[in-house]
Design goal:
By secondary structure, the chain is α+β, with helices and mostly antiparallel strands. It is built from seven helices and eleven strands. Helices cover 28% and strands 19% of the residues. Strands 1, 3, 4, 5, 6 and 7 form a six-stranded mixed beta sheet that branches. It has a five-stranded mixed beta sheet with strand order 2-10-11-8-9, sandwiched between helices. Helix 1 packs parallel to helix 5.
Length: 260
């Protein structure tokens, strides 16, 4: 499922929405794309970050596990040394982040997964989920091993409702009023994780990476969602290409280092 986002907001909060007297956010790190005007992002060449979910017929992963693993996969490639400096993926990563942060989630099983795993990329595992992330490709320039794979049909369920997030981990809060397929929600969770990453300084990023990018994805309580959106935290707003209306807020990203 493809997804595109427009970042909004500044810096976030812990899991519960803050009071109206919450302190203003700190200055954004120089690398944050929030410092740049959104105008012009559509005029540059567009790239997409491919995400491939392994979904076997006999043992599909739980939905929340897949969403969290997809978000961690995005963070993993953002932090990878090949994505920086003179690394082999650095140019593609820069070009992708200069445009809209498009992500497309496809699914594979069996031989399809094995063939796709031979392409350069990183496989991230969750409790049972496996998601492989690849360096960005031009919007119309997918490798043939990935281009032929399905986008739709990525439907997953949680056997039981996920419990509350673990204390002290970043949380990506999903909009309780927007229905999304699992593939769409995986891409949106990836957007939210990326917005949180952009807001962090080097020390916070290193600490998160050292912790294996631990995070939680949860649906926000209905009575807290509007407060989260209005609080000035990073918010993913969908571009409206698939499933939901343009401009819809889909994810609010929080992190323990953001002001309370």
């Amino acid at each position: 499922m493809s997804s595109d986002s427009t970042p909004s907001g500044t810096a976030p909060t812990p899991p519960a929405p803050p009071p109206s007297s919450a302190a203003p956010p700190p200055a954004q790190p120089p690398s944050s794309p929030f410092r740049h005007e959104e105008t012009g992002r559509d005029e540059v060449r567009q790239f997409v970050l491919p995400l491939l979910a392994r979904i076997e017929k006999t043992a599909p992963p739980a939905r929340t596990d897949a969403l969290e693993t997809a978000a961690r996969a995005v963070l993993t490639i953002l932090a990878d040394e090949r994505s920086h400096g003179d690394g082999e993926w650095a140019r593609a990563m820069r070009d992708w982040q200069d445009a809209r942060i498009r992500k497309v989630v496809r699914r594979a099983r069996g031989a399809e997964w094995r063939r796709a795993s031979e392409l350069p990329g990183i496989t991230v595992t969750g409790a049972a989920a496996e998601v492989r992330v690849y360096p960005p490709v031009p919007l119309g320039g997918w490798p043939k091993e990935l281009a032929k794979l399905q986008v739709s049909g990525t439907e997953l369920a949680d056997p039981e409702p996920p419990g509350p997030p673990a204390a002290g981990v970043p949380v990506l809060w999903l909009n309780p009023g927007v229905g999304m397929s699992a593939g769409k929600a995986m891409a949106q969770a990836g957007h939210g994780a990326q917005l949180a990453w952009w807001e962090l300084g080097d020390a916070e990023r290193e600490a998160w990476a050292a912790n294996g990018f631990a995070l939680a994805v949860r649906t926000a309580p209905k009575d807290h969602w509007e407060s989260l959106v209005a609080a000035g935290f990073p918010v993913v707003r969908d571009a409206g290409f698939t499933e939901i209306p343009a401009g819809s807020p889909t994810v609010v990203a929080t992190h323990p280092s953001f002001p309370r």
